């Protein structure tokens, strides 16, 4: 598939998606969202066991395209927000693990996209933040919802109300970022992490993702029940992945999930 704003490559079983609009610091506009929608439904994604998302140049993504937003009518702004949410939900709901490799600025919609990923790896030099308030805006792609679920309401309000960026180290301390890397190896470390993850049980990985994502929408009692139900299902007689995992441990060998 040919794209103007995206690049895709495979490294073994890992897919690498690069936002490629470096002159505008990979800012998100309708064209980028259109291409992301196409990409997320493509065979390229279906053929990966994990996806790493990164940005070309000095930014991961510097937010929604401010120049394009200048012209928006209320309807266009609403449509843009809905499209962005749909794209980010598609990312969040991919069956495979998704890792954001934050190579530089992750601001506004860029941080919101990273928050839709399962895990965030960041360059020690990256800056992250939700600066929408400086433009008289609010985060429009579910950032007001995803960030407090990750770091608590107080930390999320602090970041959104102040609108100042934070360093990658501060983001790591808050739990927004799970791993810090030297700037030159962010992508490689994200891919190495993805490679480690895909050696685990593929169905278990899919279920962990589903339980965490769906559980966050439920109260803890309902979420616990959902987990018990899925755990029980793993013990059906024909559940080959569980059988292989447990047998491999008892036979002192590596499991073969293929
Ligand atoms: N949009 C468009 N262009 C951008 C951009 C952006 N967000 N960020 C940077 N650029 C462009 C710059 O205009 C510049 O273009 P030229 O002047 O060369 O044509 C080029 O990228 C390089 O940027 P700088 O020259 O500024 O580079 P610096 O290294 O000096 O500064 C910076 C980097 C990231 C600190 C700075 O560019 C910056 O502050 N950028 C804006 C960051 C920001 O405020 N991001 C949040 C955007 S607001 C909603 C839907 C969505 C949203 C809200 C509501 N609804 C529909 C309700 C989301 C909003 C946002 O994401």
Give the strand line-up of the largest sheet: 1-2-3-5-7-10
pLDDT averaged over residues: 96
How would you sum up the global shape?
globular
Number of DSSP strand runs:
10
Which spans of ≥5 residues are poorly predicted at pLDDT below 50? Answer: none
Biggest sheet layout: 6 strands, mixed
Tell me the name of the CATH homologous superfamily of the largest domain: 2-enoyl-CoA Hydratase, Chain A, domain 1
Task: List all distinct small molecules, including ions and cofactors, that are bound in this structure.
Answer: 4-(N,N-dimethylamino)cinnamoyl-COA
Quaternary structure: single chain
SSE string, helices as H and strands as E = EEHHEEHHEEHEEHHEHEHHHH
Architecture overview:
This protein is α/β, with parallel strands linked by helices and 258 residues long. The chain folds into two domains: 6-197, 2-enoyl-CoA Hydratase, Chain A, domain 1 (Alpha-Beta Complex), CATH 3.90.226; 202-250. 48% of the residues lie in helices and 16% in strands. It contains twelve helices and ten strands. The structure holds 4-(N,N-dimethylamino)cinnamoyl-COA. Residues 24-25, 27, 62-67, 77, 80-81, 84, 105, 107-109, 131-132, 135, 137, 139-141 line the site of 4-(N,N-dimethylamino)cinnamoyl-COA (DAK).
């Amino acid at each position: 598939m040919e794209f103007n704003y995206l690049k895709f490559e495979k490294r073994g079983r890992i897919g690498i998606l690069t936002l490629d609009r470096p002159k505008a610091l990979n800012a998100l506009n309708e064209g980028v969202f259109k291409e992301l929608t196409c990409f997320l439904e493509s065979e390229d994604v279906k053929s990966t066991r994990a996806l790493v998302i990164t940005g070309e140049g000095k930014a991961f993504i510097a937010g929604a395209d401010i120049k394009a937003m200048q012209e928006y009518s209320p309807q266009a702004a609403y449509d843009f927000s809905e499209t962005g949410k749909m794209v980010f939900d598609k990312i969040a709901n991919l069956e495979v693990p998704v890792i954001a490799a934050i190579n530089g600025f992750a601001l506004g919609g860029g941080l919101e996209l990273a928050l839709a990923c399962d895990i965030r790896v960041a360059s020690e030099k990256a800056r992250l933040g939700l600066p929408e308030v400086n433009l008289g805006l609010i985060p429009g792609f579910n950032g007001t919802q995803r960030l407090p679920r990750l770091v608590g309401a107080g930390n999320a309000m602090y970041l959104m109300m102040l609108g100042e960026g934070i360093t990658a180290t501060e983001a790591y301390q808050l739990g927004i970022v799970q791993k810090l890397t030297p700037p030159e190896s962010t992508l490689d470390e994200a891919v190495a992490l993805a490679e480690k993850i895909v050696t685990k049980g593929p169905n278990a990985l899919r279920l962990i993702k589903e339980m965490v994502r769906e559980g966050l929408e439920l109260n803890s009692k309902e979420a616990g029940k959902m987990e018990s139900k899925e755990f029980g299902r793993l013990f059906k007689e024909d559940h080959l992945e569980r059988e292989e995992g447990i047998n491999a441990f008892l036979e002192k060998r590596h499991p073969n999930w293929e």
